[in-house]
Amino acid sequence: MADTAAITIPARRYGDRQTVLEEDPQVWRRTWLLVASTDHLAHPGDVVEARYGLAPALVVRGDDGRLRGFENVCPHQGAPLCLGAHTGWDQIQCNNHQWTWDLAGRLQAVDFGAPVEPGQEIPLQPLAVETWGPLVFANFDPGAGPLADDLAALRATVEGAGLDPDGLRCRSLVQVLTGGNWKSLVDGATAVGPVPELGTRQLPNLAVRADGGAGTVTIVRARPYVSVDRAMFDVLVLEPRPAGQAPGDQRPLDVTLKKDDELPTETGVDPDLIAFARAQLTPAPPTDDLLADPDERPELVALHTWLDERQR
Ligand code: FES
User: Fold this and answer.
1) Residue 98 Cα: closest atom of ligand 1
2) pLDDT band at residue 242, thresholds of 50, 70 and 90?
3) Between β-strands 168-179 and 253-257, what pairing exists: parallel, antiparallel or unpaired?
4) Candidate of 58, 71, 72, 76 to mutate for ligand 1, largest count of ligand atoms within 8 Å of Cβ
5) In this structure, are 262 and 164 located in the same domain?
6) What's the rounded Cα separation, in Å, for the pair 199 and 186?
7) Is the dihedral of CA 59, 60, 62, 65 positive or negative?
8) Could you tell me the CATH number of the domain that includes residue 42?
9) Higher-confidence residue: 238 or 16?
10) Of the residues 111, 126, 150, which one is the last residue of a structural domain?
11) Is residue 30 lining ligand 1, measured as CB closer than 6 Å?
């Protein structure tokens, strides 16, 4: 947690290409990453991907019912294996030269269906996968500690509102490509001001609001994009799962908003959040280092103290 002394936040953390590169091994490949929901991955052959800057993850439900995560990179020549969310896959096949793996990540065929020769068995790179309530997380680090160790704040927010995470389903996932740095997006979404305050930041890149009265949870997930001045701003809405409904009985409403697309009201997403994200398209990154007082900006100080430890 934060020290009582003010800390200096380097401006380069918000607008420097080198920082984006450093965050790949130091942050995204060592952190539990929210990928999707169990409602996206209820049936064998359901698959979802989520890219965090240079760290692309996919999670698939296998024929045996098990969730598995893989790096979303073809081991042949590096093409992405999956874009978006899909159902009904019985294999994972790269579009480029059709190398093909089964849903457990074992190579089945190489160039355009050619058989795998002995010694050529190149599996997909596995990721750790764990779930909490309806949320599915992946971790690139084979030595990662349990997901539960990193979820204290999320658990406190949801359970503190009187909600049972196991009684929730994912209603929608809305994604917007916007500008700026993932940190400034979460900073803004958790700030008190004209933007809807989402309460406690969940380290490092989530902000969560739980509404005990409505029984809903809104999660903002900010992800670095591959260029330094772009980021993905995603909003997941969780709602009570109707009695008798199992994961997968009703697919979440997935929407990727382009520049002037209207936000469908059925998503249940607060329009002010999307307006905030769109207003970040051309932000000016800070040019001066910032002195942050933990009494005034505890969330910000906690994040950067955490980053200091990762980037030491
Ligand atoms: S890059 Fe994937 S099969 Fe060649």
Assistant:
1) 3
2) very high
3) parallel
4) 76
5) yes
6) 10
7) positive
8) 2.102.10.10
9) 238
10) 150
11) no
Distance between CA 190 and CA 13 in Å, rounded?
18
Which residue CA neighbors atom 4 of ligand 1 most closely? 97
Decide which of 231 and 186 is more confident. 231
Edge-to-edge strand ranges of the sheet holding 67-71 = 33-37, 135-139, 126-132, 67-71, 55-61, 47-52, 85-86
> Which pLDDT tens digit goes with each residue over 211-227?
999 999 999 999 998 88
CB of 77 shorter than 6 A to ligand 1: yes
Cα-based distances in Å from 281 to 62, 118, 205, 278: 38, 50, 18, 6
Q: What are phi and psi of 136, to 5 degrees?
A: -115, 125
Q: Which atom of ligand 1 is the closest one to the Cα of 77? A: 1
Please report the pLDDT score of residue 193 as a whole number.
52
Question: Domain ends where: 150, 169, 191?
Answer: 150
- The tokens describing 215, both together, are 């029984």
Tokens standing for residue 276:
């905030």
- Token pair recorded at residue 83: 């874009």
**pLDDT attached to residue 41:** 98
Q: Are residues 229 and 126 in the same domain?
A: no
Q: State whether 272 and 299 are in the same domain.
A: yes
pLDDT at 20: 82
**Is 198 a residue whose pLDDT tops 80?**
no
CA 89 from chain centre, in angstroms, equals 22
Tally the domains of the chain: 2
- In this structure, the residue with its CA closest to atom 3 of ligand 1 is 97
Residues 184, 312 within the same domain = yes
Same domain, 76 and 14: no
Distance of CA 122 to the CA centre of its chain: 27
Domain interval for residue 228:
1-25+152-312
Question: Are 135 and 265 contained in the same domain?
Answer: no
308 or 215, which is more confident:
215
